Amino acid sequence: MRKIFIFIMLFIVVSFLTAQAAVQIIEMKGDVKIRRGLDENWQPAGVSMLLEDIDTILTLEYAEVLLQIDTEKKFRLISNSVLDIGDLRKITERELFLYLTSEKINEIEPRKKKLKLRIPNVSVVHGEFRSKDQPLQVKSDSSWWKKEVNGAQALYSQSYYPNTVVKLHKILNKYPDVQDCGEVHFYLGRTLEALEKPGQALDAYQTAIKRCEKHHCESEIAQQRIEMAQEAIKRLKK
Question: What is the model's pTM?
Protein backbone atom coordinates (compact mmCIF):
# COMPACT_ATOMS: atom_id res chain seq x y z
CA MET A 1 0.00 0.00 0.00
CA ARG A 2 2.83 2.41 0.87
CA LYS A 3 4.56 1.85 -2.49
CA ILE A 4 1.29 2.43 -4.33
CA PHE A 5 0.71 5.65 -2.41
CA ILE A 6 4.21 6.96 -3.17
CA PHE A 7 3.75 6.14 -6.86
CA ILE A 8 0.45 8.00 -6.95
CA MET A 9 1.93 10.97 -5.15
CA LEU A 10 4.87 11.27 -7.53
CA PHE A 11 2.68 10.81 -10.60
CA ILE A 12 0.28 13.57 -9.58
CA VAL A 13 2.95 16.01 -8.45
CA VAL A 14 4.80 15.65 -11.76
CA SER A 15 1.54 16.02 -13.70
CA PHE A 16 0.49 19.17 -11.91
CA LEU A 17 3.90 20.75 -12.30
CA THR A 18 3.78 20.28 -16.07
CA ALA A 19 3.75 23.74 -17.60
CA GLN A 20 1.09 24.88 -20.01
CA ALA A 21 1.13 27.76 -22.44
CA ALA A 22 0.78 31.17 -20.79
CA VAL A 23 -2.75 32.41 -20.14
CA GLN A 24 -3.57 35.90 -21.43
CA ILE A 25 -5.93 38.55 -20.11
CA ILE A 26 -8.05 39.64 -23.08
CA GLU A 27 -10.84 41.60 -21.37
CA MET A 28 -11.37 43.07 -17.92
CA LYS A 29 -13.46 45.56 -16.03
CA GLY A 30 -13.20 46.87 -12.51
CA ASP A 31 -10.39 46.22 -10.05
CA VAL A 32 -8.41 43.09 -11.00
CA LYS A 33 -5.12 42.15 -9.33
CA ILE A 34 -2.42 39.59 -10.06
CA ARG A 35 0.33 38.07 -7.93
CA ARG A 36 3.44 36.79 -9.68
CA GLY A 37 4.92 33.52 -8.48
CA LEU A 38 6.69 33.92 -5.15
CA ASP A 39 6.00 37.65 -4.96
CA GLU A 40 3.86 38.49 -1.92
CA ASN A 41 2.55 41.72 -3.45
CA TRP A 42 -0.54 42.20 -5.57
CA GLN A 43 -0.25 44.41 -8.63
CA PRO A 44 -2.87 45.82 -11.01
CA ALA A 45 -3.75 43.55 -13.92
CA GLY A 46 -3.96 44.78 -17.49
CA VAL A 47 -5.29 43.64 -20.84
CA SER A 48 -2.76 41.58 -22.84
CA MET A 49 -0.88 40.49 -19.70
CA LEU A 50 0.48 36.93 -19.85
CA LEU A 51 0.10 34.76 -16.74
CA GLU A 52 1.95 31.58 -15.82
CA ASP A 53 0.80 28.55 -13.81
CA ILE A 54 2.37 29.85 -10.61
CA ASP A 55 0.59 33.22 -10.83
CA THR A 56 -2.70 34.07 -9.08
CA ILE A 57 -5.51 36.35 -10.23
CA LEU A 58 -7.96 38.21 -7.99
CA THR A 59 -11.15 40.08 -8.89
CA LEU A 60 -12.62 42.54 -6.41
CA GLU A 61 -16.23 43.68 -6.10
CA TYR A 62 -17.93 44.43 -9.44
CA ALA A 63 -14.80 43.32 -11.29
CA GLU A 64 -14.56 40.67 -13.99
CA VAL A 65 -11.85 39.29 -16.25
CA LEU A 66 -11.80 37.15 -19.40
CA LEU A 67 -8.81 34.89 -19.92
CA GLN A 68 -7.60 33.26 -23.13
CA ILE A 69 -6.50 29.73 -22.19
CA ASP A 70 -5.46 28.60 -25.65
CA THR A 71 -6.52 29.36 -29.22
CA GLU A 72 -10.00 27.94 -28.59
CA LYS A 73 -10.73 28.20 -24.86
CA LYS A 74 -11.70 31.23 -22.82
CA PHE A 75 -12.42 31.48 -19.12
CA ARG A 76 -14.39 34.20 -17.31
CA LEU A 77 -13.70 34.94 -13.65
CA ILE A 78 -16.50 36.79 -11.91
CA SER A 79 -16.27 39.36 -9.12
CA ASN A 80 -14.94 38.61 -5.63
CA SER A 81 -13.00 35.55 -6.81
CA VAL A 82 -9.44 34.28 -6.58
CA LEU A 83 -7.88 31.55 -8.69
CA ASP A 84 -4.42 30.15 -9.25
CA ILE A 85 -3.68 30.04 -12.97
CA GLY A 86 -2.47 26.46 -12.44
CA ASP A 87 -6.07 25.55 -11.53
CA LEU A 88 -6.96 26.02 -15.20
CA ARG A 89 -4.60 23.40 -16.60
CA LYS A 90 -6.23 20.41 -18.25
CA ILE A 91 -6.73 17.50 -15.85
CA THR A 92 -7.26 14.11 -17.43
CA GLU A 93 -9.67 11.51 -16.09
CA ARG A 94 -6.68 9.37 -15.09
CA GLU A 95 -5.10 12.21 -13.11
CA LEU A 96 -8.41 12.89 -11.38
CA PHE A 97 -8.82 9.20 -10.54
CA LEU A 98 -5.33 9.06 -9.03
CA TYR A 99 -5.93 12.26 -7.09
CA LEU A 100 -9.20 10.98 -5.58
CA THR A 101 -7.54 7.65 -4.80
CA SER A 102 -4.75 9.45 -2.96
CA GLU A 103 -7.33 11.39 -0.94
CA LYS A 104 -8.98 8.12 0.06
CA ILE A 105 -5.64 6.63 1.11
CA ASN A 106 -4.91 9.69 3.21
CA GLU A 107 -8.24 9.30 4.99
CA ILE A 108 -7.69 5.67 6.02
CA GLU A 109 -4.05 5.88 7.15
CA PRO A 110 -3.39 6.15 10.89
CA ARG A 111 -3.04 9.79 11.93
CA LYS A 112 0.45 9.34 13.42
CA LYS A 113 1.73 7.94 10.13
CA LYS A 114 -0.31 10.13 7.87
CA LEU A 115 1.51 11.63 4.90
CA LYS A 116 -0.84 14.12 3.36
CA LEU A 117 -0.57 14.57 -0.37
CA ARG A 118 -0.76 18.20 -1.41
CA ILE A 119 -1.29 19.22 -5.00
CA PRO A 120 1.19 22.01 -5.81
CA ASN A 121 -0.68 25.14 -4.85
CA VAL A 122 0.40 28.75 -5.16
CA SER A 123 -1.37 29.52 -1.87
CA VAL A 124 0.99 27.13 -0.07
CA VAL A 125 3.97 29.10 -1.35
CA HIS A 126 2.50 32.30 0.06
CA GLY A 127 2.12 30.89 3.54
CA GLU A 128 -1.67 30.62 3.56
CA PHE A 129 -1.67 26.88 4.21
CA ARG A 130 -1.62 25.44 7.70
CA SER A 131 -1.18 21.80 8.61
CA LYS A 132 -4.02 20.01 10.38
CA ASP A 133 -1.97 20.36 13.56
CA GLN A 134 -2.25 24.11 13.09
CA PRO A 135 -5.63 24.62 11.41
CA LEU A 136 -6.42 27.92 9.82
CA GLN A 137 -9.23 29.47 11.85
CA VAL A 138 -11.72 30.86 9.35
CA LYS A 139 -15.36 31.81 9.77
CA SER A 140 -17.94 31.04 7.10
CA ASP A 141 -18.13 34.71 6.10
CA SER A 142 -14.37 35.01 5.60
CA SER A 143 -13.88 37.16 2.52
CA TRP A 144 -10.82 35.24 1.34
CA TRP A 145 -12.40 31.83 1.84
CA LYS A 146 -15.46 32.99 -0.10
CA LYS A 147 -13.28 34.27 -2.94
CA GLU A 148 -11.72 30.81 -3.22
CA VAL A 149 -15.15 29.16 -3.32
CA ASN A 150 -16.27 31.66 -5.96
CA GLY A 151 -13.25 30.67 -8.02
CA ALA A 152 -14.26 27.01 -7.74
CA GLN A 153 -17.83 27.88 -8.74
CA ALA A 154 -16.50 29.68 -11.82
CA LEU A 155 -14.68 26.47 -12.77
CA TYR A 156 -17.88 24.48 -12.29
CA SER A 157 -20.11 26.88 -14.24
CA GLN A 158 -17.77 26.66 -17.24
CA SER A 159 -17.62 22.84 -17.14
CA TYR A 160 -14.08 22.51 -15.80
CA TYR A 161 -15.35 19.60 -13.74
CA PRO A 162 -12.11 17.73 -12.91
CA ASN A 163 -10.50 21.07 -12.01
CA THR A 164 -13.47 21.92 -9.79
CA VAL A 165 -13.15 18.65 -7.86
CA VAL A 166 -9.45 19.25 -7.20
CA LYS A 167 -10.04 22.91 -6.28
CA LEU A 168 -12.81 22.02 -3.81
CA HIS A 169 -10.63 19.38 -2.17
CA LYS A 170 -7.84 21.93 -1.85
CA ILE A 171 -10.28 24.31 -0.15
CA LEU A 172 -11.40 21.59 2.26
CA ASN A 173 -7.78 20.78 3.11
CA LYS A 174 -6.82 24.43 3.47
CA TYR A 175 -9.77 25.42 5.66
CA PRO A 176 -10.55 22.25 7.67
CA ASP A 177 -12.50 24.05 10.39
CA VAL A 178 -14.60 26.43 8.33
CA GLN A 179 -18.31 26.35 9.14
CA ASP A 180 -19.65 26.53 5.61
CA CYS A 181 -23.04 24.88 6.20
CA GLY A 182 -22.16 22.20 3.64
CA GLU A 183 -21.53 24.58 0.75
CA VAL A 184 -18.24 23.06 -0.45
CA HIS A 185 -19.48 19.46 -0.17
CA PHE A 186 -22.71 20.38 -1.94
CA TYR A 187 -20.80 21.76 -4.93
CA LEU A 188 -18.49 18.77 -4.77
CA GLY A 189 -21.57 16.54 -5.05
CA ARG A 190 -22.89 18.48 -8.05
CA THR A 191 -19.52 18.30 -9.78
CA LEU A 192 -19.03 14.58 -9.16
CA GLU A 193 -22.55 13.98 -10.40
CA ALA A 194 -21.72 15.88 -13.59
CA LEU A 195 -18.66 13.62 -13.95
CA GLU A 196 -20.95 10.57 -13.64
CA LYS A 197 -19.43 9.42 -10.34
CA PRO A 198 -22.68 8.70 -8.45
CA GLY A 199 -21.16 6.93 -5.45
CA GLN A 200 -18.78 9.76 -4.62
CA ALA A 201 -21.46 12.36 -5.37
CA LEU A 202 -23.79 10.60 -2.94
CA ASP A 203 -21.14 10.72 -0.20
CA ALA A 204 -20.57 14.45 -0.81
CA TYR A 205 -24.29 15.30 -0.64
CA GLN A 206 -24.69 13.31 2.57
CA THR A 207 -21.71 15.11 4.10
CA ALA A 208 -23.20 18.47 3.08
CA ILE A 209 -26.40 17.66 4.98
CA LYS A 210 -24.48 16.43 8.03
CA ARG A 211 -22.43 19.64 8.14
CA CYS A 212 -25.60 21.73 8.01
CA GLU A 213 -27.09 19.75 10.87
CA LYS A 214 -23.88 19.80 12.91
CA HIS A 215 -23.63 23.58 12.81
CA HIS A 216 -27.39 24.14 13.14
CA CYS A 217 -27.58 26.06 9.87
CA GLU A 218 -31.05 27.59 9.66
CA SER A 219 -30.64 30.27 7.01
CA GLU A 220 -32.86 30.14 3.94
CA ILE A 221 -29.88 29.37 1.71
CA ALA A 222 -28.76 26.51 3.97
CA GLN A 223 -32.26 25.02 4.03
CA GLN A 224 -32.48 25.22 0.23
CA ARG A 225 -29.11 23.48 0.03
CA ILE A 226 -30.34 20.68 2.29
CA GLU A 227 -33.48 20.21 0.17
CA MET A 228 -31.49 20.10 -3.08
CA ALA A 229 -29.02 17.65 -1.55
CA GLN A 230 -31.87 15.41 -0.37
CA GLU A 231 -33.41 15.48 -3.85
CA ALA A 232 -30.04 14.59 -5.37
CA ILE A 233 -29.62 11.68 -2.94
CA LYS A 234 -33.05 10.29 -3.90
CA ARG A 235 -32.18 10.66 -7.58
CA LEU A 236 -28.84 8.89 -7.20
CA LYS A 237 -30.32 6.02 -5.20
CA LYS A 238 -32.87 5.13 -7.89
Answer: 0.78
